[in-house]
Amino acid sequence: MNDHIMNIEQLDTPAAIVDIARMQHNIDVMQSRMNALGVTFRPHVKTTKCPDVVHAQIAAGARGITVSTLKEAEEFFAAGIVDILYAVGIVPAKLPRAMALKHKGCDLKIIADNAAAASAIVEFCKAANDTFEVWLEIDTDGHRSGLSPDDDALLTIGRILRDGGIEVGGVMTHAGSSYELNDPEALAALAEQERAGCVRAAERLRAAGIACRTVSVGSTPTALAAKSLEGVTEVRAGVYVFFDLVMANVGACTTSDIALSVLTSVIGHQPDKGWVIVDAGWMAMSRDRGTSKQTHDYGYGLACALDGTPLEGCALVGANQEHGILAVEHDDDLARRFPIGMKLRILPNHACATGAQYPEYHALASDGSTVAWPRFHGW
Amino acid sequence: MNDHIMNIEQLDTPAAIVDIARMQHNIDVMQSRMNALGVTFRPHVKTTKCPDVVHAQIAAGARGITVSTLKEAEEFFAAGIVDILYAVGIVPAKLPRAMALKHKGCDLKIIADNAAAASAIVEFCKAANDTFEVWLEIDTDGHRSGLSPDDDALLTIGRILRDGGIEVGGVMTHAGSSYELNDPEALAALAEQERAGCVRAAERLRAAGIACRTVSVGSTPTALAAKSLEGVTEVRAGVYVFFDLVMANVGACTTSDIALSVLTSVIGHQPDKGWVIVDAGWMAMSRDRGTSKQTHDYGYGLACALDGTPLEGCALVGANQEHGILAVEHDDDLARRFPIGMKLRILPNHACATGAQYPEYHALASDGSTVAWPRFHGW
Question: Where are the beta strands (DSSP E) in chain A?
């Protein structure tokens, strides 16, 4: 890690580059949209795990953050952020660690979607003579976790908490199946399904006398596709801050919106095969092949020139740990076009997975200068 | 990170567990084989990036190590290992960093497979009034980098180095296509192809008056399948130390040899779908789906009980960042069989990729106690 300014051409490879102008544009577009829809915005920081990025989101108007691990909660609380939603169903064994954070002054909200976890929270809080604000996780698209809005278990669990002296502060849902769509009408329909389901869950809880102040929905594609957010109080989204090739295939962005890229160097050629070997393998790109089942399969990423312009007829078709194989169409002199040591930039399939491979981003300004933005790792 | 002893049941999840007895067995089997074949052994430490593991490999008889990044070279030199092969084609811009390590006393060998890199090394060394030992990378199976043993470019590049005052210390090859096989005879044939090609390259160089002392071959499957290593002086292998599900499909191990697993907790259920939700998502397992095209597709990993026994009829079919979806066949009472908070262990598809997700391993002794073994991250 170093925090002095280096030009992008001086950086060692591989390196994770954040185009600051693109990132700021993505932040501004999302925040403006949320402002127009009349909801607050709580970005999911699991994408970046980077205080420099999150401070830019807060500066643009975000209110609080969403995290996927207690380590994220601890690190961002240490970085000055107090209002934190831990949006993965709580494991009872993690309650002491969560409570320790609350005792330091963190306004940490936890979630539950089952009676066993709710009962464990009640018991823990009684023993600790303390409390948590708990939100109930709602399933609005069947892709993963959560309670159906129409299931009576929703009310049962709400009552376990309320009767145990725990505040049910809200309901939250994440329509993650939006990643599988690529049609604007289908995305708008899923956004409405996400909204309607989560609002319905809140209304049923309120009708049963359980307060449920907050109604929290979101995923990057549905946040950008929603036409109405009536009854919703806040939206969450994460990957929009950088975007990636999966999101471009979904239609949530274009490739020129993608703010994260991997800087790599040419290390060899196999002219008979039309291959250029680069030092961005799967350790640099991640093993994420999220575009493999989408309209456009980008292999391990979209190769661009150092200035960010996509290279026509090139595909990162293979990756070993520290080797990437860039297949180039119709080129009789690969070694001339791609000399040893030449630097390229690769746009990633999945910004969350690629970022996780790096201890730091290099934030790139329009003049070519970069500065290191640390990110953290682990749980 | 903590270095005090904890029982496996006390660990927070997800966590990367190394079964010490299995690891030591894997180390001993490989070293014994190399001893019997009359070659020295230079393990590839990219799998673990963990000094505790590598010291066990050295203690068993390994001579020197192989690395895939200069960071690995720097970290392991700092941990006391001097004889290091950097086995990724050198980028000329990395030569100053490599030389800095050599100046500290590291016996660092670098590799090249093209004239441009060879010329850059010669020029750099002239300007620095210093030298490197360079090995030539040989392609014996067409899967990635290297010079064909029969290509005259091999001799041209050897002469560029020699005439520039650089010692050509050896040839090295890696038959990485062995990962795509699963038949003992085909593996033995590929091991022979790897051996014969690399020895032929060395003989051609020697016939041209280029010394080429070392002949280095290897991959985990070919190292275990080779019947003769005549003419070879050393073998390299990496993943054998932990093994993984890809290697089990190749036939290089059984699932009961796999020393790395991910400790996870049950966080929810979707009984209508037969799903148990666990806190091992792709951040914990990696996105590696290396078994997807093999005989047995293990999804994101093989689920086991806390004691390491594989669970019949269970498959980790999906993974989001911090959620894994464990599909369970024929179970009417998932919540009873897999209560909230229950701990499981998941064997990974690819030990190198899964390990890279963690700042540390938890090394598990036979009495259930664990101790933290730090590993490093980045380049």
Answer: 6-7, 15-19, 40-41, 65-67, 83-86, 107-112, 133-138, 167-173, 214-217, 234-235, 260-270, 275-278, 302-304, 314-319, 324-328, 343-347, 360-364, 369-374
The whole-angstrom distance between A229's CA and the closest CA on chain B is 25
Average pLDDT along chain A:
97
Do A99 and A163 share a domain, yes or no?
yes
**C-alpha to C-alpha distance for A31 and A28, rounded to whole angstroms:** 5
- pLDDT mean over B237-263: 98
Domain limit, last residue, from A241, A271, A295 = A241
Could you tell me the CATH number of the domain that includes residue A361? 2.40.37.20
Distance (Å, whole) CA B69 – CA B50: 14
Helix (H) or strand (E) holding B27: helix B20-37
Is residue B234 domain-shared with residue B281, that is, in the same domain?
no
Residues A284 and A313 in one domain: yes
Tokens describing residue A335: 């070694």
Query: From the list A268, A288, A321, which residue is nearest B145 (CB)?
Result: A268
From chain B, the residues in CB contact with A378 under 8 A are 358-360
Tell whether the model's pLDDT for residue B51 goes beyond 80.
yes
ipTM score over 0.95, yes or no:
yes
A277 with B341: Cβ contact below 8 A = no
Last residue of a domain, one of B211, B241, B271: B241
Round to whole Å and give the CA distance between B236 and B309: 31
